[in-house]
Every structure is written in structure tokens, then in C-alpha cells.
Predict the structure.
Amino acid sequence: MPSYDLIVIGTGPGGYVCAIRAAQLGLKTAVVERRATFGGTCLNIGCIPSKALLHASELFEEAGHTFSKMGIGVAPKLDLKAMMAFKDQGVDGNVKGVDFLLKKNKIDGFHGAARIAAPGKVEVKGNDGKTQTLDTKSIVIATGSDVARLKGIEIDENRIVSSTGALSLPEVPKHLLVVGAGVIGLELGSVWRRLGSQVTVVEFLDGVLPGMDNEVRRQAQRLFEKQSMTFKLSSKVTTVDTSGKRLKATVEPAKGGAAETIEADVVLVAIGRVPHTEGLGLKEAGVKLDERGRVAVDHYYATSVPGIWAIGDVIAGPMLAHKAEDEGVAVAEILVGQAGHVNYDAIPNVVYTYPEIATVGKSEEELKAAGVAYNVGKFPMTANGRAKVNLTTEGFVKILADAKTDRVLGVQLVCADAGNMIAEAALALEFGASAEDIARTCHAHPTLPEAVKEAAMAVAKRAIHM
Ligand code: FAD
Ligand code: NAI
């Protein structure tokens, strides 16, 4: 019977990164994965395929609308099958990359459903139905998350889809009804709108992207509306009638009231994700869950059972790939007695729409609620030279800095390439930089990140280009 120092259950960005770091640190490591390929939600049905479609559909839209403004005459024609093949190729390259990295680090990979038979014992039921038990000193649960479902509305991944089905629709729906104006609703809604769908988004709360800075949320909604996405806010979908050729969704005010029927070809349910804990034998093993069904851990990712740890989407915190990765590294280091640590105040959050929306640190509402006095520096992209010449003047950069110390507390970007630009802001937060530190850092010209420098100067009311 094989025996390991560490078995990681799940090979998403949390699990596979944890396994690699553990192997680097000298632990004899194995991973168990239920899917046929490694890489988890992120690589197979999440970050990677969605970004492939966002990239391709953005170029499609640019070719149709912006190229002519730059003297490029083309009439783009959609070949959806080929676009899907392009996406699948991207996924394939990435999951093969993880397979290569696991082998390179001499990590044993098992395919099958894992169950914790007892601390130190992991049972793996292979797809052939055969079960084997592996011995290990430590177990890391990195089983990620699954789609949250709406009561009474069955996802068939055909006409009523989750993000997984929405990444592989065989044709462009005439009308796509999205339930939930969160990250998935806006990203995948953008993909299909660019490819020709009319998109209506039904959101329970009174604005898009709950949890983000209110100014960002308002600006984002305005920009999506300009792109002809329709929002039905403070509303909920209660039923979807699938009996006819077209779907008939019943939409009601969130607080109750007169219902209306909206016809659609496809309904995308994107109301969040739930931790993936079933079938793992957690109850029998004594592993405690928190009030929201996530595996409860302490500051060191230790569960209630010695020798069993947990990271990523299955524990508390933002459900983001980079958060899972950093926790994977931290727990591996903790296992060998090092001081693994994640700074939860400096985790960037990016929505890969056009324009992109990227934030790190606190929002204005969070600072107000905490009673922290702050200064705001804001710079509009209309005043950035590179944005002007690129015809990407939508949005702004906003920096929130402590009123007393000038330390950067939060950075909000709504602009083209915000997802890349937020790295500078995350570094600033991690290093405890002041707004003046950013303002005095030389930024290459002409670039979009100059808007970050200008916003930092605007904190002290000395922006140059405004
Ligand atoms: P996962 O990636 O969910 O991996 C868990 C793995 O465990 C899965 O492969 C599962 O099969 C396996 N598993 C579960 N139970 C068992 C078991 N009993 N035995 C064996 N294996 C098991 N995040 C970002 O940061 N950026 C993005 O752009 C982004 N885009 C996304 C787009 C979509 C459409 C979705 C759905 C998510 C996106 N996310 C994104 C979120 C991101 O995918 C997750 O935060 C991330 O994958 C979490 O990593 P994880 O390792 O915790 O779990
Ligand atoms: P989400 O939590 O971002 O958004 C869900 C939205 O649905 C919220 O606005 C919520 O108010 C709304 N909602 C909930 N119940 C509803 C109901 N009954 N009717 C109408 N609206 C309802 O969740 P989403 O978009 O499903 O994404 C799941 C997670 O995946 C995100 O939390 C994120 O962490 C991760 N993700 C990250 C991405 C990125 O980093 N770019 C991309 C995609 C997903």
C-alpha cells in the first residue's frame, strides 16, 4: 500500500500548487482528482475557458466596430465551432501543463473520487469502480466549489445552463437571460452579447457586482447598459417553463409583487458557488464545517481534525484562483514548519469584461463603515494619452489613501487592461506604500498605468494631466 507525507484531494489551483510546493520542500506527495484531467474548475470549466472566449469575442467585436475607425476594413464572420475549438485547445494546453508539472515534481497522480476513511487514510474509488486506500501523514482538502442552484429550476446544461454549459453553447442564443449580475453573469453575458445575443440580466439586489465599491458598480452598470445589456434589478426568477420552443421565465420583484414573463432561448444561472464537501466523509472523520457549509479552518488552514487541512474555494474567503494558489503554497510551507502566510488585505479581484474592473484592498463603503478617514485620488481615462489614442477612454482609476499616513488602502480600476494594471496596486498594498510612493515612481509613457500614477498624485490634489 503506497504511503505518503501528503495527499492533496483536488487539483485545482489550490491543490496542484500546494502539491508542487510540498514536493519542492521534500514531501512525498500525491494528488487525487475526480476529473479526467488535472487543473480543477479553473483550468477545465472556469478561468481559462472563460478568458479564451472573452478574448476571442472581444476581438470579434473590435473587428466589427473599432477596426474601421483605425483604417482597417474587415467584415468579421463568426465561426462558433472554430471559436469553441480555440477555447478547448487553450484548456488542453493548460491541463497538460499541470500534468507535466506534477510529473516533473515526482508527484503521484490518482484519478478517482477521494474519501477520508480516517485521519491518515484516503480511499480512492477509481472510475473503474475499484477502490484503493492510501496512507499519508497529512491530508489537504482542496475540493473547490460547485454551482449554486435555484430551487425549482433544474440546470440541464442545454437550455438552462450554469457557467459550464454557457462555455459550450452550440449556437448563439437570440435572447440569453442571465440570473445574477455577479462576475459570471457579466463575463459570460458579455461573451454572448458580443457574439450576437440580446442579453437580459436579472439581479436580486439593487445593483451589479455586490460587494464592490459603489462608484465602480454604478459606472460598470452604465457601461454595460451602453453596450445594450439590459438589467432587471431588485428582481428574481422564480420559475422557468421549459414546455415550449422558447423558455418562459417568471420574474418577480425581489420583495414580491406582480410577476412578468420573459421569453428566452437560454437561461444562465449564475447566482454564486457553494463549497464542495459531499462524499468526502468529513462528518465521519469529525471535520467541522462552518455556518455556510465550508470546511472550518484556523489561521494555519488546520481543520478540527489533526493532520487534515483545507484551502481554496472549500474554505472561507473570496472564491478566486490566486487566493487558492497562495493558500496552497502557505499550507505546504506550514506543513514543514515554515511560516506560510497569505495577506488577505491585498488580494486583487478582476472582472474580465470590457472595460475590465479590477480592485484591491478596501472600498469607500468599507472604509466609511470602519470609521477610517481617507483621501480620494481619481483620474479619468479620458485624460490618459494612451487611452485616447487607443480609443479606450472609458472608466477611471481611484486610489483611497489613509488621511493621516497617506498609506494606500484601496485601489479601484475600471478601464481597459485593468486586470494587468492592478498588479502594481497589489504590490503597493503588500509593501505598505503611500500614495506619494506611487506618485513618485516613474511610469513609462505613453501607457495606461500612468493613470494610476496620476490618481496617486490626485490624492494630494496635484495631478498633472487634469
Ligand atoms: P477547484 O478549482 O474547484 O478544484 C477542485 C477540484 O477538486 C476539482 O477538480 C474537483 O473535481 C476535485 N474534487 C472535488 N471533490 C473531489 C473528491 N472527492 N475526490 C477527488 N477530487 C475531487 N477565479 C479567478 O481567480 N479568476 C478567474 O478569471 C475566474 N474565472 C472563473 C470562471 C468561471 C466560469 C468559474 C466557474 C470560476 C472562475 N474563477 C475564477 C474561480 C476559480 O475557478 C476558483 O476560485 C478556483 O478554481 C478554486 O480553486 P480550488 O483549487 O479551490 O478548487
Ligand atoms: P457572484 O457571487 O459573483 O454573483 C452572484 C450574483 O447573483 C450576485 O449579484 C447575487 O446578488 C445574485 N443573486 C443571488 N441569488 C439570486 C437570485 N435568486 N436571483 C437573482 N440574482 C441572484 O457569483 P457568480 O457570478 O456565480 O460567480 C461565482 C464565483 O466564481 C464568484 O464569487 C467568483 O469568486 C468566482 N469567479 C471569479 C471570476 C473572476 O475572478 N474573474 C470569474 C467568474 C467567477
Remarks:
- Residues 9-15, 32-35, 40-42, 46-47, 50-51, 113-114, 142-145, 163, 184, 276, 279-280, 312-313, 319-322, 324, 352 surround flavin-adenine dinucleotide (ligand 1) (CB under 6 Å).
